[in-house]
Amino acid sequence: MEPNRRAFLQGLAAAPLFIPSAVRGANDRPAFGIVGVGNRGQWLHRTFQQLGAQCVAVCDVYDPTLQRARAESPKDAKAYVNYHDLLAQPGIDFVVIATPDHQHKPHLLAALAAGKDVYQEKPLSLNLQQSAEMVEAVRKTKQIVQIGMQRRSMPFVRKAKQLVDDGALGRISMVKPMWNWHFTEWLDNSPLEGKLDWDLFLGSAPKRPLEPKRFRWWRGFWDYSGGNMTDQGTHLMDVVQWMTNSGPPRSAVCQGQVIGNPAAEAPDVFTAVFEYPGFLAQWTLDYCNTYDWDWSVTFLGDKATMVLDRGGYRLFKDNGASATPWMQSGKSELIAQEPDRDSATAHQQNFLDCIRSRQEPNCPIEIAAAAVAGPHMANLAWREDRKVKA
């Protein structure tokens, strides 16, 4: 790996989790504009309004999506196709960015230049170089920036972190993040319904004639995304690194295939293995199967094993070392558990609290950069058929 990237990854490993910010007041009902109101953006648009923020502007390059968001906003909210027009509107306290990965850097930098606080969806960036540039840009400002890795604000995950820190698992040797969905990707090339500004969608991506499938499922194409590797991997690898107090991995290898959706470029079935000091992490995704449905992260220690998933966490006692391991029982005693009671909007609430207090949010820019570093390395490993080292 190039020296500047190596230095960046090493810097992330040593980055502090919380960096104090200057304290200033903010409106009790801060005003926001949102750029990108598709699937995830629609949820964020609704959520921030439900939490008491006032939507004053919406922006999207696809007219049917834009009109839906306008109908779900206050009557005086403005609607824009170009994000620069939204950023020029006075009276906006913060901007929500929920656009494709390749637009994250230009949208974030433009919002910072306009003096706005930012809530940006994950993954942070399209590649490692962008991550470095985005971290540098944020730290040149006093703006509050939260990246949408919501497990950082889930109470049950924070309690699990405390158990690990207290030594409940002992020495961790292996971590197994996994995501299984039987998922249909929208990759047909039939004409789009409604107007799309294709040039604005492409932005800095390579210019090409409109292919509706590239807009419908942009995550399947390298020009706009890191694929499922960074989409879901940034969530789960962040949990791995948080629980183990680790920075980005030392190296990554990956095997994967495009199985369920041959019209895509990015694999929908893969396994990546990451090397960390003292343990390995095996990150597996299968979008063609529902067994063990949804996400999970399993931490295997010499005292206990912890499983985190959408339902909460469960802690299982290890049966201990033995000279004849094949004689051990495969069953482990459940010794602790914590359900996920209701944490759906905790991350967005944390951001709103921080734009008022000017304290660092739960997922600042350095954490987001460290979380996506491993998945970026794994994508390089898969695309270039080699082992990638930090």
In short:
The protein is 34% helix and 22% strand. It has helices spanning 3-14, 39-50, 63-71, 83-87, 101-113, 128-139, 155-165, 198-202, 212-216, 227-243, 346-357, 365-384, and strands at residues 31-35, 54-59, 78-80, 94-97, 117-120, 145-147, 172-180, 251-257, 269-276, 279-286, 294-301, 304-309, 312-317, 334-339, 388-389. The strands form 2 sheets. It has a 9-stranded mixed beta sheet with strand order 14-13-12-11-7-10-9-8-15. Strands 3-2-1-4-5-6 form a 6-stranded parallel beta sheet, with helices on both faces.
Could you outline the blueprint of secondary structure elements for this entry?
Elements lengths: L2 H12 L16 E5 L3 H12 L3 E6 L3 H9 L6 E3 L2 H5 L6 E4 L3 H13 L3 E4 L7 H12 L5 E3 L7 H11 L6 E9 L17 H5 L9 H5 L10 H17 L7 E7 L11 E8 L2 E8 L7 E8 L2 E6 L2 E6 L16 E6 L6 H12 L7 H20 L3 E2 L1
Parallel strand pairs: 1-2, 1-4, 2-3, 4-5, 5-6, 7-10
Antiparallel strand pairs: 7-11, 8-9, 8-15, 9-10, 11-12, 12-13, 13-14
Helix pairs in contact: 5-6, 6-12, 10-12
